[in-house]
Specification:
- Helix 15 crosses helix 16.
- A three-stranded antiparallel sheet has the order 2-1-7, with helices on one face. Strands 3-4 form a two-stranded antiparallel ribbon. It has a two-stranded antiparallel sheet with strand order 5-6.
- By secondary structure, the chain is mainly alpha-helical.
- The longest helix has about 30 residues.
- The protein has a domain of about 170 residues: SecY subunit domain (Preprotein translocase SecY subunit).
Length: about 500
Amino acid sequence: MNLKSLDPILKLIPNIKKPAAPPSFKDKVKWTALIMGTYFILFSIPAYGVNIATLRQPVLQLINVIFAARTGTLITVGIGPIVLSSIILQLLQGSGVFNVDLNDPEQKGRFQSMQKLFAISIAVVEALIFTYTGYVPLASRAFFGIVAFQLAISAIIVIYLDETMVKYGLTSGINLFIAGGVAYSIVAGTVNILGAEAVQAIAAGGATAIPNAILAFGPLFFSVLVMLISIYAYDINVEVPLAFSQLRGIGGRLPIPFLYVSVLPVILATSLILSLTVWFGFLSGVGGSLAPIAHFIAYYQRVPSSTGGITNNLVGGIVYLISPNFPLPYSSSYGGIGGYGPYFSFLATGVSPLYLPNGALIYVPEWVHIITYTIVLVILCVIFGRFWIEMTGQSPKNVAEQLQSVGWQIPGFRRDPRITENVLNKYIPTITILGSIFVGILAALATLTGAVGTGMGVLLTVGIMYMLYKQIEQENVLKSYPGIDKMLS
């Protein structure tokens, strides 16, 4: 497929103009603050026509963290369209439907415009799906069109906020939107859930008052634990020795981090899984001869709300088995299952219905759900990790060419990018796979602990802030040493 044939359509998509000159660090900070302020305004305003009181916020917590969203507000759709459009185009390019040379500015611009077109289209579709399926409970069915319009427009605004952040801010909008949402979730969860539960446990008195108060802070403990493990993992790297070919005696090392692709595979994999849990909500209304197949894919319980709408609860099916659809280990007064005791009992003894295509019904133990979800998440992380290094110029071939262009070579080997590529092939693909497996398993375990802000949210935030720190550190180095900046540019 030749993407050039789409130019008449792609030219109609508005673009954020690139700055005439690279913005200074101070200007980047100003733009970042302005964009994040706009995001949090959307984050705080409820969509007109949504029944906020009936939202199941604890159930939606992980979805909100991954999509940098807040269900029921103008930011309900979040960054989902941006991430999903990226996934779709990666799959299309990987399958050979079209080939794009991202080193060619013209083709790269066309690819970015196509990605934006996909994102806008997905934003409109998701706004309609979220409203129609009851994912966003309406105050009345008469508000359907109004709510869908608000969610779609706000999602498109987020798309352009992300583009503006990339061109004028410190990093990508996706990263900071997720980090901002997690920070809000951690503060709100600590204050509104853990603190109140501990106070209630102490006020109840008795011999178990203190142990129950300590146990109430379990989710906060797991958040800190995930944070420490993530920080430790980011400090692990393999160093490949380098020598500067034009000046003898000058050498260095190329650090290849254990988390080479950071947490991006988890963002993509989890976004895909959670999108399936929401998108397949339309199957809840399928009946007749197609009902067994629909229930086999995703079985929803349709719960009528007090306003006449319908809420779909995913309780079984293949989609349920691959989803992180687990209860929260909080007290029942805060939307949880009642604490860690009932939570672990549910994981050990709970079952979910699985309708076979022939109509037969079997019950799947919840521990099978845990294993299935973990395996699928890890596999998707590995797939997206491999895709990502190819798409972002981090493959052995790209790195070898970059080293060649600035005069670096691996000592003991001839200065040839093909030889450097062969050496890097012994490290980068293996580290990418191992890092993707590690981050997938850590994300799954973090989700199962019920950590505040979701364990996965904490994992993502640590990775995002680590990348931001490295980027700021690099900018300061380049500013201090203009010669290095000139050489690398």
